[in-house]
Amino acid sequence: MKKILFFFLLLGSQLISRADEGMWMPLLISQNYDAMQRLGLKLTPEQIYDINKSSLKDAIVHFGAGCTGEIISDKALVLTNHHCGYDAITKLSSVSNNFLMNGFMAKTQAEELPCPGLTVKFLVRIEDVTDRVKNFIGNAYGKEVETKFEEIAKSITKEVNQENVFESDVKSFYAGNKYYLFVYQKFTDIRLVSAPPENLGKFGGDTDNWMWPRHTCDFSMFRVYSNNDNKPAAYSINNRPYSPKHHLPVSLKGVQENDYAMIMGYPGRTTRYLTSYGVDLATSVSNPTLVKIRDKRLSIMREEMEKDMAVDLQYASSYAGLANYWKYFIGQTEQLKNLRIYEKKQKEEDEFNDWVKANDKDLKKLMPDYQKAYAEYTPYAKHATFYREAFLASALARLGAGFENIDKAYNAGVSDDSLETLCKKLIPFRKSVLNNVFIPLDKKVFSALNLMYYQDVSKAQHPSIFNDIFEDYGSEDWKKTFDDFTEDLYESTALLDSEKFVNLCNAEYIGKLLKDPAIKYALNVVRNYKDNYEAKTNQFGYEMFELNRAYQGALLEKNKNKLMYPDANSTMRVSYGKVSAYTPKDAVSFKYYTLADGLLEKYKAGDKEFDLQPKIVDLLKKRDYGDYADKNLGGLVTCFITNNDITGGNSGSPVMNGNGELIGCAFDGNWEAMSGDVAFDTRFKRTICADARYIMWVVDKVLGGHHLLDEMTIRN
Ligand code: ARG
Cβ of 378: how many Cβ atoms within 10 Å? Predict the structure, then answer.
């Protein structure tokens, strides 16, 4: 009896200590309800997602282009990550008024700063539209699937869209096996309320990024404004804070190991059903290529940014974005290898093939077809990465590439009027491409990445302009060749001179304009790539769509008695799990939380990544934690980890306890599980969260924003 009990206890604890894989659809969350309750959820499924009554989903927003935020007051105060607000904060900053560096706190609503271009979307409802979409697509193949999907999606969304009220989207799930409609309410008057100084919001910089243990206070706060009818409206001084259907109470009770943790948000992209062939391409070609290109680009950016504070501000946001995924792909490659994901995938494919045989399915050729498609595409994969990451890295090349249509029109002999119309459209385009560009930096990137393109992309695939460059500038020293070419190009092009450019933009001179050296260079690279290689990338994409649809469709059938979650696709998902420590390697164990003491341990005065303002150092040295210290742990908890399943796009997501109260803000993943988007490893995969008490300590004690706490619903 005792033995049996022991056996069950063991089994039970294994189940419970399992990390919780799966990004579930809120619409179907009742399917997971038992498991969630067992872990400690106290809410009903309707309290999570309901389209009639207010529910948690009404407090979770899609923030900006690719993040999550949550509503934490009845005046629509939004909490998200600092790295999600980073671009907006940077744009509001100047050398003399540097909110990025110093932080920001609006003392009153009147001081909140409008952020043009920033949007916040609330989810209104989700509908299954699989039959309609599938019937319409029928047996279409390749490009036609894309066209037909766009057509039906357009007609479905047209039925629900209403200007300034609803905006909607049809999304594919399980690689085209299911389709859902998402209806949103989109707000455009969003204002900055508060941000920590960068050396807290990004404490540890790229060194600590994607790593645990962590001490970053990665948060910022915004507010959603509406018109007097509580509806979305363009910015106006007469707008008022939106009245949300639901806001999350903030718990200052703290977390303990094994506490229930639930995360809702907008995970962007995972490829959990990627085959071993895909893993091989990523580790051997795509990832190392991207990393090598970005390594160079980032080091050039750094060099120029360090010289001049204004340039630093100009490039801070794009630098952070590039560096984030530079390190991501280093980590992903390392862990795909370490955790033997290729072998793991092969095993899954063998199992799949056994199932195919046993059930006599017409899918015996599926895996060989994958293999064939990858083998055919592999020789061109590097070129695709170079085109996107290296050629298009410089603003001048992007600008030159923008002349593709007018060049085509010119060669087709269209009328002077149409040519002129096309050219006039390029005037604002030029302005936007060159906005915030520092030419000396752009020039260095241009030269260095062209050299790398020349050296790394197979010679047979080179654009002919490389020959011309060597004819005119050839030297033993290839770097010199490209530097000289670049120098002349930037000197002689009319594109960088607004007046010259506008003058050339009339019918009489367009022929001359198209001979501009920067346009000639860019269009030569564009044409070479598009005429010869882009079709291969597209064809590969269509084949992957067909194969993935078949594979995931079969997996749905194979797993019909189990729950199978769809890959992330920037739609709202629910992940549940618990607060959980881990063991990164033999003899090393990581706690589930970090303390503010660690901030002082890592602190390095004057360092780019580990500096802290004197005022903060002072508060920390005095251990002045206000009401936010953890009584049991004897300090201020800064960050904690859970075993939730999240990915990029979840940044800023609320971490909630069993009562749906906010306990933290999710902001990162950990190094040992960097292969997580391809395969979830239950031993290592963790979500890194800023503790709600750490955030409130910074708001209150560092930024003097106690008034913000007064508008929240605090649970002590
Ligand atoms: N790795 C984090 C994410 O993708 C972003 C962290 C931003 N911080 C930084 N040092 N770049 O969600």
Answer: 16
